[in-house]
Amino acid sequence: MTGLSDTAALAAIGAAARELKLPTVRADAARMAETAVRERQTHLAYLAEILAAETDDRASRRRARRIGEARFPRLKRLADFNTDAIPGIAAQLATLATGAWIDAGQPVVLIGDSGTGKTHLLIGLGLAACEQGRRVRYATTAQLVNELAEAADGRQLSRVVAVRPPRPAPARRTRLRPPRPARSRTAVPDHHRTGGESLHRPGDQPAVQRVGSRLPRPPACRRDR
Q1: Average pLDDT in the 131-136 region?
Q2: What is the DSSP letter of 137?
Q3: The pTM is what?
Q4: In the chain, beta strands by DSSP E
Q5: CA–CA distance from 25 to each of 15, 29, 33 (Å)?
């Protein structure tokens, strides 16, 4: 493709960017081309700049989508937490913010009185994970219990409670199902011999019944005199 005017070139770039789903390239190609000419950038430098802009914009949209999917009640960042109130917590927060505990499959439990900042820290850790490209879901205990109860009523508990095993386990999905209650049984002797005679006549109901059902009453014992 040679001999294109600037107008035709921009139209071709817009069509190709739309086909390749590159919205930033389509929107900023003309402006960044003018900047490249003014700063005397090479063709490769211009290409690197516009692709970097597309990558950065895509990462920003991905972070915003992750934060929206997490359903945080409000946005709180770790940088806004007053670390002076709890001595020694700054180093721990810096370590947790890296997300290494998530990769290792380790839980984090925050214990403290009301108003000490537990919710702030949980949301802050969740936001940090979202900005690292991780999927996060914020839920209170009451919300989690209600969702599990509704899923159990709708026979969808195994679909809701589906967890991915921690790394480096194989990438497969494990579905957890509530254990079935063991069937408890009770045994009544089939016969009890007194004087060589059975207390049950032939044709009586079986003596082994499930718990909760009505057991047959054995016939009266009759002895021959």
Answers
A1: 90
A2: -
A3: 0.56
A4: 162-163, 174-175, 185-186, 209-210
A5: 11, 5, 11
